[in-house]
Amino acid sequence: MNRKYFGTNGIRGVVGDLITPGFISKMSSAIASMLKNKGTVIIGTDARLSSPFIKNNVISSFLASGIEVIDLGLVPTPLIQFAVKHLHANMGVVVTASHNPPQFNGLKVIDHDGIEIDIRKQLKVEEIFKKEQFTYVPWNENGSVTRMNLKQEYIDQIVQSVNIDSIQKKKMSVVVDTGNGAGSVVTPELLRQLGVRVITVNGNLDGRFPGRGSEPTPTKLTEMSKITLQSKCNFSVAHDGDADRAIFGDEKGTIFFGDKSIVLFEKWFMSKHENKQFVTPVSSSSAVVDIADAMGGKVIWTPVGCIFVSRKMISNNILLGGEENGGLFYGLHQSVRDGAMAAALMANILAETEKTFSDLVLELPKYFQKKDKLPCPNELKERVMDHIVAAIPETVELIDMDGVKLIYEEGWVLIRPSGTEPIFRIFVEAKTEKKTNEIMAKGMRLVQDALQKSG
Ligand code: MG
């Protein structure tokens, strides 16, 4: 059985289309039935206009199913993940569509360890949903709702995970662009408690995301960039709608993709800790390997997706993970991506050096990257993938945990069938632009040939 509703990051859809009261009630009843009608579930929402009706539907189904509910209100996803562990709850449900446009919403389902439920549990929920095998409890066993505010406990744990003395002494200024999303209720407050002067951009909660949208794409962060320069700030940070990701900019207003910041975190971490392991998806830049080699550390690859990174950290006792989309996983706080934690840790890194953010980025290994795609019907993807693998010469080193990544002397190409669209994605990185183009041509040819053989 394949998953129909759960994607890489929970269930998402357009409100009024997939996301209706009926759908949410049935899905929540399926989750409660998987929990065998007992236990405690933490719930919270992002700032979307549809979040209140969805939350009330989830709560209603849980109560009818005998589940105790703790409602944390409007908070970032990582705060719910923290709360599940902190309160020893059985599960968490976040009403959010993360960085998707405002007409979307959905559910992220968090397991008792704070990490999103794995594929087996997702399949179990979908099976109960499909067969409508919901179980409810008698009138005298219905659950109840408790409202709680765990913001300060969450902030305290982040504060304890950084060097507050260094940060306070540095007297930093930081621009925070929360994109009208859930990060507005935590990150500015957290940084202020660390002694940082904070200037907020799009810091008012608004589920229409009128500021710059809910996705922190570097080209959309011009306001944050401008203010950083005007107000002579040390750096800037932007979150997506549910604040599990963080995109950074330097003191000159240059905004970087996550591949730069995760390497900064990796380098700093490996210079401080004995456990020099770093987990990252196969799509990450080779800069992570260069840094690990230089610092005597090791990179552990995973398929693309934050759940794989989190689970690998837990199983292999690894304390740091990162994704090129701006996801930072800091195991000394929690092994899930956490935008507020990333902001505090960046302040920590800059507090401990005389160098500026742009100096630190200049010191990183340089690579050129290129992305492309080719259309391919979903039903052909497997066959095309087989043809691609068969055509790869044996002398080429490859990683095949998620699509195939071919590693050459001067660069690599990652070929992956998209999980959501009828396309193949081709992602190339190399030391020079010329090499990047050459490897891209090779990658495209491999996919085109395989498409022809499969058609
Ligand atoms: Mg997100």
Give the arrangement of secondary structure elements.
Elements: E1 6-7, E2 10-14, H1 21-34, E3 40-45, H2 51-64, E4 68-74, H3 77-86, E5 91-95, E6 104-110, H4 119-131, E7 145-147, H5 151-160, H6 164-170, E8 173-177, H7 187-193, E9 197-201, H8 222-230, E10 235-239, E11 246-249, H9 258-272, E12 277-281, H10 287-295, E13 298-302, H11 306-315, E14 320-323, E15 327-330, E16 334-337, H12 339-351, H13 357-362, E17 368-375, H14 381-391, E18 397-399, E19 404-407, E20 411-417, E21 423-430, H15 433-454
**What percent of residues are in strands?**
15-25%
The CATH topology of the largest domain, please?
Alpha-D-Glucose-1,6-Bisphosphate, Chain A, domain 3
Mind telling me which CATH architecture of the largest domain this is?
A: 3-Layer(aba) Sandwich
**What is the number of beta strands?**
21
What's the number of helices? 15
Give start-end ranges of low-pLDDT stretches. none
Sketch the major β-sheet.
7 strands, mixed
The coarse silhouette is: globular
Oligomer kind: single chain
**Ligands:** magnesium ion
In total, how many domains does the architecture comprise? 3
- Which CATH class of the largest domain is shown? Alpha Beta
Structural Rg:
22 Å
Q: Kindly report the average pLDDT value.
A: 96
Between the first and last Cα atoms, what is the distance in angstroms?
Answer: 25 Å
Give the helix proportion (percent range).
25-40%
CATH H-level homologous superfamily name of the largest domain: Alpha-D-Glucose-1,6-Bisphosphate, subunit A, domain 3
Structural class: alpha/beta
